[in-house]
Amino acid sequence: MEQQKLKRLTREDLQYIAGFIDGDGSIMAQLVRGDYKYGYTARVTVALYQKTKRHWFLKQMKAVLGGNLYKKTNGMSVLEITGYTPVKTLLLALHPFLRIKKPQARRVLKIIEAYKNRETEACFLKVCQQVDKVANLNDSKARKHTYASVARYLNCPVETERGGYLIYYTKSPFR
C-alpha cells in the first residue's frame, strides 16, 4: 500500500475500512515453509472477503489499498494485502478504529518489528510463537506449520504445556 494513497483517506474512510475488516476481513500471520534462512518465514496478511457478485467493490478497495484480488471457486472474492511494509502501513492507520481485530493487529505489528531482529534461531522462534498467538486469536483450524514444527525442523527443544507437564520434543536424527 502506498503511503501517499493512505494519506488521502479521510478519517471516515479509515473508520469504514476498519469496520469492513472487523466484519468481513482477517488479519493473519502464517509460517511458510521454503528456502529461507531457518527453513521458514513469517508472512503477514490483511484480507477482505466478499461474495463474487460484489467483486466490483473489492476492485474499488484494491485501487485504494493495493494488494492482490482474486476470485475463489467457492463463490467468494478476496483482496489480500501481504508483506511487512504494506501491512504495517495499513494497520498503523487503522489501529485506532479497529474493534474486534485490534488484538490481531497489535500482534501482527509486533511480529513485523520482531522479524527485523531474527539474527538467531531463538529470535526467530519468538516470532513463531507470536504467529501462533495470532492464529489462536483467529480460531485457525487447519494449520500445517506452527512454532513446534519450526522448532522441530531446527532441532531445538520445544516447550508446550499439556496437562500441567512440560514436554520437550526434538527432531530425530534418523528422519
What characteristics describe this protein?
175 residues; alpha+beta; Endonuclease I-creI; 4-stranded antiparallel beta sheet; two-stranded antiparallel ribbon; 7 helices; 45% helix; disordered C terminus
How large, in whole angstroms, is the Cα Rg? 18 Å
How many discrete domains? Answer: 1
Beta-strand percentage range? 15-25%
- Looking at CATH, which topology would you report? Endonuclease I-creI
CATH architecture: Roll
Which superfamily, in CATH terms, is the homologous superfamily?
Homing endonucleases
- Report low-confidence residues grouped into runs of 5 or more: 163-168, 171-175
The helix content, as a percent range, equals 40-55%
SS element count, helices:
7
Largest sheet: 4 strands, antiparallel
Question: By helix and strand content, what is the structural category?
Answer: alpha+beta
Number of strands: 6
Order of helices and strands: HHEEHEEHHHHEE
- The CATH class name reads Alpha Beta
Output the strand order for the largest sheet: 1-2-4-3
